[in-house]
Fold this sequence. Notes:
The protein has 3 helices and 24 strands. By secondary structure, the protein is mostly beta strands. It has 4 domains: 97 residues, Sandwich (Immunoglobulin-like), CATH 2.60.40.10; 55 residues; 104 residues, Immunoglobulin-like; 107 residues, Immunoglobulin-like. Strands 19, 20, 21, 23 and 24 form a 5-stranded antiparallel β-sheet that branches. Strands 1-2-3-6 form a 4-stranded antiparallel β-sheet, with no helix packed on it. Bound molecules: copper (II) ion (CU). Copper (II) ion (CU) binds next to loops.
Amino acid sequence: xxxxxxxxxxxxxxxxxxxxxxxxxxxxxxxxxxxxxxxxxxxxxxxxxxxxxxxxxxxxxxxxxxxxxxxxxxxxxxxxxxxxxxxxxxxxxxxxxxxxxxxxxxxxxxxxxxxxxxxxxxxxxxxxxxxxxxxxxxxxxxxxxxxxxxxxxxxxxxxxxxxxxxxxxxxxxxxxxxxxxxxxxxxxxxxxxxxxxxxxxxxxxxxxxxxxxxxxxxxxxxxxxxxxxxxxxxxxxxxxxxxxxxxxxxxxxxxxxxxxxxxxxxxxxxxxxxxxxxxxxxxxxxxxxxxxxxxxxxxxxxxxxxxxxxxxxxxxxxxxxxxxxxxxxxxxxxxxxxxxxxxxxxxxxxxxxxxxxxxxxxxxxxxxxxxxxxxxxxxxxxxxxxxxxxxxxxxxxxxxxxxxxxxxxxxxxxxxxxxxxxxxxxxxxxxxxxxxxxxxxxxxxxxxxxxxxxxxxxxx
Length: 460
Ligand SMILES: [Cu+2]
């Protein structure tokens, strides 16, 4: 038995060392998700995980806001040569839901998924990953196989070749069995295998911390007119090299999340720009409110922390009278009107009733429905803006927060609601504009709120 110990120690050390874990991001068995605001639609492109390659690749287009509908063309091609594969879905006007397409891939590794709709084209970088059996599993099965062979050998030895041969095989059987069981029992502590096709680890191990992406936020035309369409562009540059930043990670089911609000809060959009070219993110919007607008973009560079960048633009007047958001209007009534409370009527209840700056507040939204679905991997989103627009906060429904990046609930799941709970701390006293968002029947529901926050020590 003594000779077993070094063998066991050696195999345990080998297994614990083997295979760098997929520390952040997607494993080989998880779907990839890209929310996209394209051709007037809000969609999420879900690339289903594949277990082997070459194989068909299922891509589901979830239409959250189908708008006027239309065809969405999907093409996947390997970044390292090889063929490409195409498919398409036709989104029906006004019909939110999941539209499946079947493509194929012939290799693992970096790919580009092209999503085309209307005149817009988005190029999404995507690594095709295939889960790989971890080393411990290989060792365990090999040991079981050895044990089986040794058992047969021991029996054969006992019958025909004498005790010495039988004893040798019996010893081998014991060793192999002990190794197999030890490895099996210890397996939860071993690092999982990196999936096949995993891109090389980002250089964070070499240089801790990476430069932030420096944004240029611009609109075209430079001064959109109310009632017209315009393009909001986010161009990201590396502060040190000046090169386009093109290493955004899939972060809450999108490469970037953009919130656009008019100064008075009457206009609110939470959108997901397409990527027409490396380092460039664009979204087409309709100018509906007159005056100054704020842009907030959230994204995360691979191997770096998340960033929130801001910008602003102004929508010009179209000459029509009676614009409710005229900035020259001295009216003090900032923000959307609070939504009336009622049974399940999307009332937002704060606890305490009068939130105090700097203290945690629990916000509960009663949606009145128990069949809510996740959107961007979360049961609910709460976006909070200070009245002047200088501050933006974004949190997720508390109970769905437990899901990590590798275990995102599918859009088709209907297990949330009727109550959505958020925890939030308002940094300063004053009036805040807030929007809660959730999905039901694949459609996104956006509910505006106004929240007044008291100063510490001055409860009303
Ligand atoms: Cu988003």
